[in-house]
Write a structure and sequence with these properties.
The chain has about 190 residues and is α+β, with helices and mostly antiparallel strands. It is built from 6 helices and 6 strands, in the order ααβββααβββαα. A 6-stranded mixed beta sheet has the order 1-2-3-4-5-6. The chain starts with a helix and ends in a 15-residue tail after the last helix.
């Protein structure tokens, strides 16, 4: 089964239990999809859930390039690394991703990480910066108009993946290949 079909199937199975929490119950499905897409990239990109705060709160996920993973057997892991490929803010399927992308939480993440993917599992909004350093929506993707339509499509994961899978994978590849620029902050250094 391809990763997109598995993503849709897992979301449907989790929902069918009746015990799912709108946002977090579906984290594994998204993380598995991101890891599968990221494994095919050069450099590889891995998704880390529940990223530790480095000054802007704790994003739901961080996207780290392969070279950010410690390869030695040191006892202590590397501390405080910023996810090179940005962070992800996830909301439940009923939430409006475009409204979330313009909210205070995402603005705070963007100000710190400079690259944020916002999703409700069916819609994706990728925020980065323009040539002047201002926040901009770089690219969006919608898999279904609303939650009900998404769930109906997920009931047939193979067909849904055949129809939308390539678009989703290509979108996620572009997101994960985009390195975040460093956030620059100026203090009172006497520069005008």
């Amino acid at each position: 089964m391809n990763p997109v079909e598995s993503y849709f199937k897992t979301i449907h199975e989790i929902r069918s239990t009746g015990g799912a929490v709108p946002e977090t119950s579906y984290y594994p499905a998204l993380a598995n999809l991101l890891d599968a897409v990221g494994a095919e990239l050069k450099p590889k990109v891995r998704c880390v859930s529940q990223v530790a705060s480095t000054g802007a709160g704790s994003p739901d996920f961080g996207l780290y390039s392969e070279d950010q993973f410690q390869k030695t057997k040191d006892i202590e892991p590397m501390k405080g690394q910023m996810p090179e490929r940005g962070v992800i803010e996830v909301k439940g399927l009923k939430d409006d991703t475009w409204i979330t992308a313009e909210g205070a939480q995402v603005s705070k993440y963007w100000g710190h990480y400079r690259q944020v993917l916002v999703t409700n599992y069916r819609d994706f909004v990728f925020l980065g910066q323009d040539d002047t350093g201002q926040q901009i929506k770089l690219e969006t993707l919608r898999l279904a108009e609303n939650e009900a339509e998404f769930h109906t499509r997920c009931m047939h994961p193979r067909i849904f993946a055949q129809n939308a899978g390539e678009r989703l994978v290509e979108y996620l590849r572009r997101v994960m290949l985009n390195s975040t620029p460093l956030a620059v902050s100026f203090s009172n250094s006497g520069l005008a």
